[in-house]
Amino acid sequence: MTKLAETKVKCRDDLTKLIDDLDLHVGVEIGVDEGFFSDWLLANSNLQVLHSIDAWSTETEKTLSEYAARNAKIMADRKQEYRSGEQDARERLSKFGGRSHIIKAISWEAAGLFEDNSIDFIYFDGSHTKDGFGRDIICWLSKIKNGGVISGHDYCRKHGYGVIEVVDNFVKSHGLQLHLTMERKSPSWWAIK
Description:
Blueprint: H1 3-6, H2 15-21, E1 26-30, H3 36-43, E2 49-54, H4 60-63, H5 67-77, H6 86-93, E3 100-104, H7 107-110, E4 119-124, H8 130-141, E5 144-152, H9 163-174, E6 179-180, E7 189-192
Parallel strand pairs: 1-2, 1-4, 2-3, 4-5
Antiparallel strand pairs: 5-7, 6-7
């Protein structure tokens, strides 16, 4: 039985087991917000470095992500000042020293900072629109090593997300096997490149 067959990924937190079972060392999380999942990945896996990338911007026309803009509107409606999660993420991840590398950038611009075949693991949780997420996956595909894990959050249709359509087309066009976690509301997806 292969290590992959032995690894049970029931929820996104279990991706750390997959990371360790496949002996993956360099990871990227796209869409960090306050850094909770980056914290989990670093605390519970043997990743040597995790690049946590987020634009922390409400400029939907630039980022093609509506999450921050939607939260800013909700806060404004409540007459509360919007605060991005950037400072929280930086504080939360500082305890990992050199294992944590934070990049404030739009994800497809950040992709240009990485060599092809240099990433073992990537988790997409940034733009969930068809255009934004589709652009993310195209820009990052060559950066991921063969045998690396491509994964992401919110394989669902809430808020008009385009994740399901993009993922389904991606795995089909690349002949990859799609795996889903078992969370009801916001399952994660993953595949081996």
